[in-house]
């Protein structure tokens, strides 16, 4: 059971990460991958996203979420790559990969980690757009998504 968490400023290649992750998992019957991207919407256009974080706390929190997912869903491996700093629209922010013997555990493991990441990891978002910068508040839907795992 393998957990790997990387927090970095540098851009990553999502496809290369998946290939590397699956390379040494011959017993895996399923790998689920989630890649979150910086997006702009017509009603609130942005040019970039700035993510600030607490390095030590973020590393420990994400490792804890990942280890919980390994144990809860009997995963073979999980890897999380999360960026910080300034990212342009279309660039990746986060990638979560979960491997298991069966697909449902892989899906659940990746969802579990993302739901906890969105609400409890010490990252703070600031959007940069034509009107300046704006801190992003937590969304109620993220809290609701996380609650399903506490039942």
From TrEMBL:
Pathway(s) annotated for this protein in UniProt: Cofactor biosynthesis; molybdopterin biosynthesis
Family: Belongs to the MoaE family.
Tagged with keyword Metal-binding: no
Entry-linked Pfam families: MoaE
Function in brief: Converts molybdopterin precursor Z into molybdopterin. This requires the incorporation of two sulfur atoms into precursor Z to generate a dithiolene group. The sulfur is provided by MoaD.
Gene Ontology BP, a term: Mo-molybdopterin cofactor biosynthetic process
PANTHER family noted in UniProt: MOLYBDOPTERIN SYNTHASE RELATED
UniProt source species: Maritalea mobilis
EC number of the protein: 2.8.1.12
Subunit structure: Heterotetramer of 2 MoaD subunits and 2 MoaE subunits. Also stable as homodimer. The enzyme changes between these two forms during catalysis.
InterPro entries found in the cross-reference section: MoaE_sf (IPR036563), Mopterin_biosynth_MoaE (IPR003448)
Catalytic activity, reaction form: 2 [molybdopterin-synthase sulfur-carrier protein]-C-terminal-Gly-aminoethanethioate + cyclic pyranopterin phosphate + H2O = molybdopterin + 2 [molybdopterin-synthase sulfur-carrier protein]-C-terminal Gly-Gly + 2 H(+)
Molecular function GO labels: molybdopterin synthase activity
Protein name (database record): Molybdopterin synthase catalytic subunit
Keywords: Molybdenum cofactor biosynthesis
